[in-house]
Specification:
By secondary structure, the protein is mostly beta strands. The chain has one helix spanning 2-21; strands at residues 47-53, 57-63, 71-79, 82-92, 100-102, 106-111, 122-126, 132-134, 140-145. A hairpin with a 5-residue loop joins β7 and β8.
Length: 152
């Protein structure tokens, strides 16, 4: 009996480790590590960005280094009655310094989850004044920190 319990614990730990290594189980408050060399995301996009939605909440966006097909964006949208976390991958390699084209966002978590819906593919552009604009959105994101910083 004791051997069976030990086997279950070992298998459970192995499954958790496998999920974490594949990118699952990452919370929206995890600290993002430094950018890896050789990725496709231009340096100017990397870091933590924030936009306030008038009377409706905050959007926090984190861009990390990665290659085409890899997850490079995490977006946390908070409103008074909902919390949604999204992820998107780099859709294609940018020309020079951008723009940054991303895949449709997927919902990674939410409360209530039913209030969070996947998004459409989008394009991010750096403006001359250093802000980040998302195509099709009136939001302007301001840099709040480099990759790996915590602002909460």
């Amino acid at each position: 009996m004791l051997v069976a319990v030990a086997l279950i614990v070992v298998l459970g730990a192995g499954g958790t480790l496998f999920t974490l290594l594949r990118g699952g189980g990452v919370s929206d408050t995890a600290t993002v590590g430094p950018a890896s060399a050789g990725g496709d995301v231009p340096e100017g996009y990397l870091g933590r960005w924030e936009a306030r939605v008038d009377g409706a909440g905050t959007h926090r966006l984190t861009l990390t280094q990665g290659r085409v097909g890899e997850r490079v964006l995490t977006l946390v949208a908070d409103r008074a009655d909902q919390h949604c976390v999204y992820a998107a991958s780099l859709a294609r390699k940018p020309d020079g310094e951008g723009p940054l084209r991303l895949t449709a966002t997927t919902v990674t978590s939410g409360a209530p989850l039913s209030s969070c819906a996947p998004g459409t593919p989008t394009t991010l552009t750096l403006s001359p004044d250093g802000h980040l604009k998302r195509a099709g959105s009136a939001l302007t994101y301001s840099r709040v920190g480099p990759v790996g910083s915590r602002t909460e």
